[in-house]
Amino acid sequence: MGRYALQRLIGVIPLLFIVSVLVFLFIHLIPGDPARLIAGKEATLEEIQGIQHQLGLDLPLWKQYFNYMGDLLSGNLGQSIRSGLPVTDMLASRVMPTLWLTLLSMAWALVIGLFIGVVSAVYRNRWPDYVGTLVAISGMSIPGFWLGLVLIQVFSVQLGWVPTGGVDSWKSYIMPSLTLGAGIMSMLARYSRSSMLETMREDYIRTGRAKGLRETVVVGRHALRNSLIQVVTVAGLQFGFLLGGSVMVESVFSIPGIGRLLVDSILYRDYTVIQALLLIFATQFILINLIVDLLYGVLNPKIRYS
Amino acid sequence: MTAHLLEVEGLKTEFKRGDGSITAVAGVSFHIEKGEVLGLVGESGCGKSVTSLSIMRLLKDTPGKITGGAVRFEGTDLTKLSERDMRRTRGNDLAMIFQEPMTSLNPVLRIGLQLMEPIRLHLGYDRKQARAHAVHMLKLVGIPRAEEVVDDYPHQLSGGMRQRVMIAMAMSCHPKLLIADEPTTALDVTIQAQILDLMKRLKEEQDMGMLLITHDLGVVAELCDRVVVMYAGRVVEEASVRELFANPQHPYTKGLIQSVPKLRQKVRRLDSIKGNVPDLSQMPSGCKFAPRCQFVMDKCLAREPDLIPVAGASERKSRCWLTQEENAEGGERA
């Protein structure tokens, strides 16, 4: 396992390099000149050139990349074009709400999704399966923004149980994470159902029963672990999409997270912030894939030992 | 009279298909004594495996269901047991090994854990005792480095080794009856011989009854005391191994024996039984073998013969009109 984990970790390095190059190039690929944008419409050519020099935009590209990487490694993501504040400071307060939101969404989606999937598979074509299917299909087909608004209307406005938005207490996270996780929960429920059904037909399940094991042991110990290998893949991919979903959910529930920061930055063409967010999203995606790969190793001895 | 170790009586198993149902096992009866090896022989699709799964009540997750008859194990009808009592019997007094050693072990769990499951469950050993017993069983089935293999995963073992593990698992709680469903079919010929020798040795050491399901008459000759031949979900002949090979009664058995290539005989083509096993949903109305039988008579197409004792032999039965005629002639002469 140690060797396998090390291999995966080393494999991440070239990916991170490619991501850093692409993110660095972003500022050069967008239409218009960032220096001109910072200087404003009325600026003279000298002023613009001054800013270009100040930002290092007049240097050769490779030198700019080295400067960029140097700054990055020392934790400097540049300054916001719009507010002039360091980007790291702007991110600092925004990362945690988004992190909590995505982790909570994923956690409940995994637990409930797996539960529904396993129950549906065990009681295939009986009423628990039909209920599970109904829940899953609803979760998949209801648009997130609509679900969010309905939740606000019912539980905040009418019942007053939870706040409509913000991040003042843990209660504020309940509805946003319900909204964000619904789609993934449904997806996981469907995948774990089909994966469980497939596993339950395997010969070793029959072996387990032939030993005289209880059905709960056969399902829990023998079937579930094998099904998880497939479910983990889907969960990992979906986790990546959670980031996209968080942009919408943070807007609906007024959560000051990086999803909303991205929307605002795009509206104001705050390129340095967008660049930093791109880097965060891409790195996060790579890390999640790394975790999925490591989980494969934990779940599947064939991978671990080869 | 003491009860047989296993007595299957009029077992009937049906499979749901669409609106109707198909009878895979149509009133099969046989018995096994303590320490006896009974071979259950027939072509693919004749109902051998379904019979064994019915005895173990392992038809869950298939559309199959036992719809009649009794399976008495030491006098207790297994078909009437509660699921809980059936679980206590499975893997304990009544164990089973399967055809596919490559897929019959769980790929994500260590060999030791899978071996220890029935041991802890039925013998009530704690973890340490169970592990020691698992190692002992691995040694018993001839696995080298047993202390290390307990911590291996199935993919680290060859097919032959995995089948040995399956045998060790089945034997670990000292079953009184072992059901072996084509235990050597998926293995290399050299490995087959080793596994058969192993099963023979263990059977003698533990004085265990065995139901050996196979289509391989060589395996039957090697291991069995008596044989039941099945065709289209029915028993067509029952005999001791010696009698079966020396003087097969049913034309189907004759065909089976003739289709085995012989060492000293020069042949251009292997003999085979012409035609195919009838589709279970379109059974002929008379004798089920009649469409393929070289001795077929009008009577055969009209009505199915009963399984009747063969005159002049003990515990010998055949389901053929010819046997009835020979019995009658023998009776006249006497």
Task: Describe this protein's structure.
The complex is a heterodimer of chains A (306) and B (334). Chain A is mainly alpha-helical. Chain A is built from 13 helices and no strands. Chain A folds into 2 domains: 31-76, no CATH class; 87-304, MetI-like (MetI-like fold, Orthogonal Bundle). Chain A has helices spanning 2-29, 34-39, 45-55, 61-73, 87-122, 127-141, 144-158, 174-200, 203-210, 215-252, 258-267, 271-299, 301-304. The longest helix of chain A is centred in the C-terminal third of the chain and has 38 residues, at 215-252. Chain B has 334 residues and is an alpha/beta fold. Chain B has a single domain, classed as P-loop containing nucleotide triphosphate hydrolases (Rossmann fold, 3-Layer(aba) Sandwich), CATH 3.40.50.300. Chain B has helices at 48-56, 83-89, 111-123, 127-140, 146-149, 159-171, 189-206, 217-223, 241-246, 251-258, 298-302, 321-333, and strands at residues 6-17, 20-32, 37-41, 64-73, 76-77, 94-97, 177-181, 209-214, 226-231, 234-240, 308-309, 317-318. In chain B, strands 6-7-8-3-9-10-12-11 form an 8-stranded mixed β-sheet, with helices on both faces. In chain B, helix 3 crosses helix 4, helix 3 (111-123) runs parallel beside helix 6 and helix 6 (159-171) packs parallel to helix 7 (189-206). The two termini of chain B are 31 Å apart. The mean pLDDT of chain B is 87. The chains are: A mainly alpha (306), B alpha/beta (334). The A-B interface holds A 200-214, 217, 221-222, 225-226, 229, 299-302, 305 and B 56, 58, 60-61, 87-92, 95-96, 98, 100, 103-109, 114, 117-118, 121-122, 153, 155-156, 166, 169-170. Chain A: One of its GO terms (cellular component) is plasma membrane.
